[in-house]
């Protein structure tokens, strides 16, 4: 007879398999139907799992779509997890360039689902809140890296929070330009943004201290 210790891992494994099945199926449904026409009923029917089973794993359609997009962003999240500790200005520039270029490449690679997400952003408060949390996460990471550059005397004195927000909002804007196929030279865009960042903020031609209000 199986003991409880043996049963729990099996139940956990089955749960993980079912969760992945739902997410994979939801991706297919979202791509085929778009955000508005996708329903939990369609996802459960195509995945061949019970309606209630979907809700046992997710709060609803928006929660599923947020998790799908988080999976798309996993590569970028992994980059953010790498400690930012450049020894030189050149190392710092390379790190920033790779982050920006990766965000554009992921947007291009996953354009179909990002277009669905863009559709959802105009209709769902929970989707908007989730994307804002993603942006806030990127701003926080950027602020931490900017603080490091100041501590190591690689940058001039500036308001870290404002510059981090301006930087990420600019990248966010171009992400959607890439998604909507208004921009396709990803390396050039990334390089231009980083040039703006480094000449305008990090160890640029001026070492003047920015006055704070």
Radius of gyration: 21 Å
The tally of beta strands, per DSSP, is 0
Distance between the termini: 71 Å
- Please identify the top-level CATH class of the largest domain: Mainly Alpha
Task: Describe what is shown at a glance.
The protein is mostly helical and 213 residues long. It contains 10 helices and no strands.
Please describe what this structure looks like.
The protein contains 10 helices and no strands. Helix 1 packs across helix 7, helix 4 (61-72) runs parallel beside helix 8 and helix 6 (89-109) runs antiparallel to helix 10 (186-200). The chain has 2 domains: 4-58, Orthogonal Bundle (Arc Repressor Mutant, subunit A); 68-200, Orthogonal Bundle (Tetracycline Repressor, domain 2). 23% of the residues are buried. The protein has helices at 4-37, 40-47, 51-57, 61-72, 74-81, 89-109, 111-121, 125-151, 160-179, 186-200. By secondary structure, it is mostly helical.
Give the arrangement of secondary structure elements.
Layout: H1 4-37, H2 40-47, H3 51-57, H4 61-72, H5 74-81, H6 89-109, H7 111-121, H8 125-151, H9 160-179, H10 186-200
Main features:
Tetracycline Repressor, domain 2; 213 residues; disordered C terminus; 2 domains; mainly alpha; 0% strand; Arc Repressor Mutant, subunit A
